[in-house]
Amino acid sequence: QLFWASFYHAVDSHLYYNIISLAIKGHQLEPLCGTKRFVWLLAMLAVVSNCLFVALSYALHEFVAYPQPFYACAVGFSAVLFALKVVALHYANADQFNFMGLLRFNTQYVYWLELLLIQVLVPNASFLGHLCGIL
Predict the structure, then answer these.
(1) Among 55, 33, 115, which residue's Cα sits nearest to residue 79?
(2) What is the pTM of this model?
(3) If you count Cβ atoms within 10 Å of the first and of the last residue's Cβ in the chain, which end, N or C, has fewer?
(4) For 99, left (φ over 0), alpha (ψ -120 to 50), or beta?
């Protein structure tokens, strides 16, 4: 479960969005680290983000008395994609991220803003799952 949950998608549109996002991020990162390292990076990010999700879900259940994430099912590649966004922005060596030529953000805030934006646009998305990719 700690690895394969990343490759299961409950809704087709979620899968399609993740495929497009992986193609964009892969196009940026694979030339920098090579194919073997990129595949290894994907596998490690999948396992680490899922382990972090389990640990945070357990902590919320035990210490904050918030059991909902502990009993919920989080699937999809989004946590890995959030982690890839963090890595890609780190290697971009840019101070600002230009969004469609309209808005500029400091690169260290881009993935946090995307996390909030996804929660507003897709309220049923796993906030904790996406957060684990950033962490």
Answers:
(1) 115
(2) 0.79
(3) N
(4) beta
CA distances from 88 to 22, 48, 74, 79, 107 (A): 12, 18, 24, 14, 10
pLDDT in tens, 92-123: 776 666 665 666 677 777 778 888 888 888 77
Catalytic residues: 78, 130
In sequence order, the 6+-apart residues with CB closer than 8 A to the CB of 76 are 5, 6, 8, 9, 10, 14, 15, 18, 126, 129
Specify the amino acid at residue 6: S
Residue type at 122 in one-letter notation:
V
Q: Rounded to an integer, what distance in angstroms lies between the CA atom of residue 115 and that of residue 135?
A: 12
